[in-house]
Inverse folding.
């Protein structure tokens, strides 16, 4: 039943009971709205509860309670003497600013993105069910910043078994993905006196941003077909280095064995830290994945992984195997920034790892991405034979190096954007874009499976535009 | 079938095929272990693949592949000339440091902790199922730092309906709980020139730590039975204030209507920001919850809530309704620190809100906590009548003020610890502990439901020890 009444200023307030919450709630809501919108002005005297109750046809107690509630909230106040008046000014409902919002490309070949249609919904639901059935009460209390201990146990087994990482659950920290890992590490290193961090070049630009935000200086290491080159470290003053040994983050090389040894020796000599960003090593196509370099120097290397490529980046779950000397400072930093990472995702992923369904999912995805890679390289070989393909042994992207013609990289990326097709030019990954070798990075993980062939056809159409220069 | 061979140094390496991964994996694993443990030393020449294959009774290709894998990982290297030798030093498996680990108290009356046995496992599972069935593919792609849009829509409706917050989905940010909210806000405010933040005193000490870490100076506001007092703000230079209007974070007062108006007027005049920490307002026992003060000044007040009290702190999910001027800077900061918050928790909670099961859960918990509060206050009135109880109108804790006798607070807290019973003395929540009024804060949310009565009996036993001074 709708109610209405006429304010002292002569305008009508209509009061419609809100879903299931009755007359009092409806009255309160109408009064709040009347005050917020200025139809009831500060100082305006409200009718007595008796009068308003009669006017609305409700019990007097309803009005008394509504007045009392709105007094507690600051909308009304008792008048000197007696009665009730409006206490609060009209309020403009906030309007959201127009945020710059990049339109999502229709066809996505960006780096570091797994197939969003591949998230194993059924397996995940089963894992959540099992986790909810078996989790102890204490899992739902305040969790430690280090992460759930059963998950760390599952993880330590997983990274040991699949990546050769030498660690134990007490040395592991669960966090919100690699960016958070890197931030926690940079801040912990800065706090213990580190000043300079080395990054591979090309790199993921966000990593430089994180290092700089933590107050570190950044130097860069050249990368060739054997991975990052350690020379600059040996003569420099860096306190830490971020490496992508399994699949160089942009160019795709596997870090050569001698280089691994050189980096490890440098870290030992300089008491420095190596951060091993093992971002997509599960997907190795020509052989079994090359083991993590962490095991060569577990006292110097932080091993960092995540489920962003194997399950979904939207899960925001990652992990580190830490050298003993860094464990307590990094955990403490995690406690300070956000207390810990969502426990339910941890419990579910622990289930998936322990039941083997995670490994099965990864194997199935490896087959899927292997096929995608082969289709992509075959297409490029066919329509753009002058593009030299690199970095195909592993991961979710490859690099297509271009003939050295002025502006060709920019032209291709621009033409792609014109076709709502997202590609990334290699210059974007360089510390100094002027030094970049022309080429494009093509992430073949991002298109959903049902759209992969059509996405590839669109890419073929794009490359066809440049056939005079690429074939 | 186990295999074994004798190294050049005369020791035996035993090779047992690892679960399902076959001989090659077992051989690789044995070689890695042999090198890591020093049984195979750097420079030691490995048998030829032919000889080792014969010795082990495996195909020669198996040994060739294993050697190749270990070369890629840096354990072995090709010798000048021919053959293979050990490349890597023995590695000591890292040992975790003994971290200081506080033993969990058996009986937990600490603040801000909901009943861990109350997590609605069945409802959550159903919500996850529905979310997994209905989520679009794009939910599993890289998520925006602001949080899932369908969750923000559900949240904007929820905080509007239950807390009177005036906002819209585009003004909301999903994050990892209040500590992260406060950190993001302090950093964003500092970046735009803020220098000083005011906290209520008593306060949650972690909030001071977060503000200081962000580079802000902290001043404190006195608190009385009407909540925080604004006087010091009016003469001071603060750029922001953290308030707990619904239930002062320790003493439990509801912020009085005139105070709300004074804080809002101060913020408008000084172009300052009010951070409304609405940490447990859902649990109001004497009336319906007092609406958020955000609605009095949505352009100045950040409303911050979380599911830490209504569901579980281990979920690490919280939200803010932001003034339009802060939206883009806080979102950008969230992007930089961790990219976003786990999407699956967001999707599940959105389902719970939209189907009404979240509201039903909150109502059921309110009844549970109401009963607990009544049992607790009745017990205190009975056994310790000289303790004055305050802050009972809402939330998950109350305050028991003590007769002003030297050291009584410390004695009670120490005696409690001796009984594995966790209570907190009020001094711990003061900027200057010397200024504290003696008393203890008792969180009645923390004990699991099945243990509440026995926990209360333990507390009664403790207070009985002090009956000469408390009754």
């Amino acid at each position: 039943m709708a109610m209405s009444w006429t304010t002292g200023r002569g305008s009508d307030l209509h009061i419609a009971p809100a879903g299931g919450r009755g007359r009092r709630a409806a009255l309160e809501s109408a009064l709040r709205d009347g005050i917020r919108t200025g139809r009831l002005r500060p100082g305006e005297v409200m009718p007595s509860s008796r009068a308003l109750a009669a006017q609305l046809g409700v019990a007097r107690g309803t009005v008394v309670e509504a007045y009392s509630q709105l007094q507690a909230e600051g909308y009304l106040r008792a008048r000197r003497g007696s009665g009730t008046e409006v206490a609060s000014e009209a309020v403009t409902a906030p309007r959201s600013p127009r945020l710059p919002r990049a339109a999502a490309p229709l066809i996505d070949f960006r780096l570091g993105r797994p197939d969003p249609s591949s998230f194993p919904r059924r397996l995940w639901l089963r894992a959540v069910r099992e986790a909810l059935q078996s989790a102890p009460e204490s899992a739902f209390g305040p969790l430690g910043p280090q992460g759930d201990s059963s998950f760390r146990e599952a993880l330590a087994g997983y990274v040991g078994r699949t990546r050769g990482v030498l660690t134990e659950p007490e040395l592991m920290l669960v966090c919100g993905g690699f960016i958070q890992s890197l931030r926690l590490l940079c801040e912990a290193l800065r706090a213990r006196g580190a000043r300079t961090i080395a990054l591979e070049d090309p790199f993921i630009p966000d990593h430089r941003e994180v290092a700089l935000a933590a107050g570190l200086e950044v130097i860069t290491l050249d990368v060739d077909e054997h991975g990052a080159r350690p020379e600059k470290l040996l003569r420099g003053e860096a306190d830490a280095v971020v490496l992508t040994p399994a699949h160089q983050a942009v160019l795709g090389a596997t870090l050569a064995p001698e280089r691994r040894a050189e980096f490890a020796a440098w870290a030992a000599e300089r008491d420095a830290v190596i951060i091993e960003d093992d971002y997509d090593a599960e997907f190795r196509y020509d052989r079994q994945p090359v083991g993590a370099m962490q095991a060569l120097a577990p006292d110097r290397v932080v091993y960092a992984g995540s489920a962003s490529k194997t399950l979904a980046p939207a899960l925001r779950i990652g992990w580190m195997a830490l050298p003993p000397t860094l464990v307590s400072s990094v955990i403490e930093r995690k406690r300070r920034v956000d207390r810990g990472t969502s426990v339910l995702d941890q419990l579910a992923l622990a289930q998936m790892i322990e039941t083997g369904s995670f490994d099965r999912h990864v194997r199935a995805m490896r087959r899927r991405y292997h096929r995608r890679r082969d289709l992509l390289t075959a297409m490029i070989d066919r329509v753009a034979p002058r593009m030299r393909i690199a970095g195909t042994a592993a991961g979710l992207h490859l690099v297509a190096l271009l003939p050295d013609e002025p502006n060709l990289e920019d032209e291709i990326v621009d033409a792609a954007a014109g076709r709502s097709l997202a590609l990334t030019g290699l210059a974007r990954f360089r510390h100094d874009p002027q030094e970049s070798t022309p080429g494009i990075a093509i992430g073949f993980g991002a298109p959903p499976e049902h759209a992969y062939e059509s996405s590839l056809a669109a890419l073929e159409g794009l490359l066809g535009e440049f056939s005079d220069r690429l074939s």
Observations:
- Chain B touches chain A through 94 residues (CB under 8 Å).
- The longest helix of chain B spans residues 357-383.
